Amino acid sequence: MTIFSVQSTIFTRASVAILSSNGLKRFSFASSFSSNALYSSPLPKTKKRRFPIVSAVDIGGVTIARNDVVRDDDPTNNVPDSIFSKLGMQLHRRDKHPIGILKNAIYDYFDSNYAKQFEKFEDLSPIVTTKQVKCSPPSKACIFLSPISVSNFPFVWCQNFDDVLVPADHVSRSLNDTYYVDPQTVLRCHTSAHQAELLREGHRRFLVTGDVYRRDSIDSTHYPVFHQMEGFCVFSPEDWNESGKDSTLYAAEDLKKCLEGLARHLFGGVEMRWVDTYFPFTEPSFELEIYFKEDWLEVLGCGVTEQRILKQSGLENNVAWAFGLGLERLAMVLFDIPDIRLFWSDDERFTSQFKKGELGVKFKPFSKYPPCYKDISFWISESFTENNFCEVVRGIAGDLVEEVKLIDSFTNKKGMTSHCYRIVFRSMERSLTDEEVNDLQSKVRDEVQRKLNVELR
Ligand code: FA5
Ligand code: MG
């Protein structure tokens, strides 16, 4: 259903240009993910909520208060509590979690094939700025800075939208696609956010793993928080001169060889194909797709880095490749995990199935509980977007919503457009009662009307 895969290809849309970065410096993650301290809430309980409201999270020893990230006082702010509570969870740093097991297997591949040339970063702050900020006195955006960066006042270097000449009104900056803390602070929407920052700091070959955030559609392969690994590799003239090839061709061939090798390392035999595509930061650009459950699943984007980006770090005589892979997507194929929500489950029947270092153990579904379908129809307004609708549904039903699908759309003679969505409710852990689902659906109806300015039919 193509309507719902828009966001997963946001960076491939020809009109999109994005390259934000975390100028907020990396935190040293002293405490591990498992101690991601979620403090219980002192907030007033005004209404019954599906989510426990978390008042602060711990990102690597730095406490970030809810009120600094989920803000009612800033109209730009669109971070819901459900997203705030995921900050600092860092599934990629859990050795017994499929995402962590996969990350370690990819590390093994790079360590053994590239003699540990690739530096690894996995604790860069997911809270990044959209601009280069001058912080004296500290602006709100700077509250997230680690002590190291604070000592760098008054200037904080941030690779950002502006740096790569993204027009101010560009779609990739929209509140519809990205979670904004305030106009100059966002939750990173891809690990490419760190490319330029690391180049500036002098790193030349690196892997960056982290949680990324996108307002998105709802189905079994899309989730608003997921994990990416970025790979970056700079070459010098001596590397390609010997080959007799042009530098771009040399890098493109090396990139494909590297990623095909990685796919073989992870999967053994698997059907895959390369698709030409577009990214603002690479040229040429490719996507790798893997055949999974009778369909092609896009697992990564990559390409030869735009010369402009290298030039910013004084590397105009070099060439580089970069890739960004979706760890959940790969893990779903490797471990046979049917639904992306499962990665967030603490149900023992899920967590106990995976062991450190054991790649590709096939997940045994503990049970498939029945789905419950509910339709909702409304006349949309001009400002209506599907991502906003999905966000409302997720805000009410959380992980009990499995899919949101547009099943009908028409425009009447008066020019009013109606949408009918089918919402699939299903818990991965238990059977839902009719009463519970009706209650969720009724809340969705109320909330959609209240927040999205639509007219229910
Ligand atoms: C990017 O994010 C680029 N930064 C990738 C890149 C890096 C290209 C370096 C070139 C050079 P894209 O938006 O296509 O591209 O996302 C990359 C991967 O993330 C996808 O292939 C997919 O595997 C995964 N992905 C995207 N959206 C979601 C989502 N909502 N849930 C789970 N995985 C997702
Ligand atoms: Mg894509």
From TrEMBL:
Q: Which residues form the signal peptide?
A: none
Instruction: Indicate where this protein resides in the cell.
Output: Mitochondrion matrix
Report if keyword Aminoacyl-tRNA synthetase is assigned.
Answer: yes
Chemical reaction(s) catalysed: tRNA(Phe) + L-phenylalanine + ATP = L-phenylalanyl-tRNA(Phe) + AMP + diphosphate + H(+)
EC number in record: 6.1.1.20
User: Which EC class, in a word?
Assistant: ligase
One family name in Pfam for this protein: FDX-ACB
Lineage: superkingdom: Eukaryota
Q: Where is the FDX-ACB domain?
A: 367-457
Tell me the CDD domains matching this sequence: PheRS_alpha_core (cd00496)
Please state every residue range assigned to the domain named Aminoacyl-transfer RNA synthetases class-II family profile. 205-365
What InterPro entries is this protein classified in?
aa-tRNA-synth_II (IPR006195), aa-tRNA-synth_II/BPL/LPL (IPR045864), Fdx_antiC-bd (IPR005121), Fdx_antiC-bd_sf (IPR036690), Phe-tRNA-synth_IIc_mito (IPR004530), Phenylalanyl-tRNA_Synthase (IPR002319)
Give the keywords, sorted. Answer: Aminoacyl-tRNA synthetase, ATP-binding, Ligase, Mitochondrion, Nucleotide-binding, Protein biosynthesis, Transit peptide
Q: Which PROSITE patterns match?
A: AA_TRNA_LIGASE_II, FDX_ACB
What family classification does the UniProt entry report for this protein? Belongs to the class-II aminoacyl-tRNA synthetase family.
Q: What is this protein called?
A: phenylalanine--tRNA ligase
Q: What is the scientific name of the source organism? A: Brassica napus (Rape)
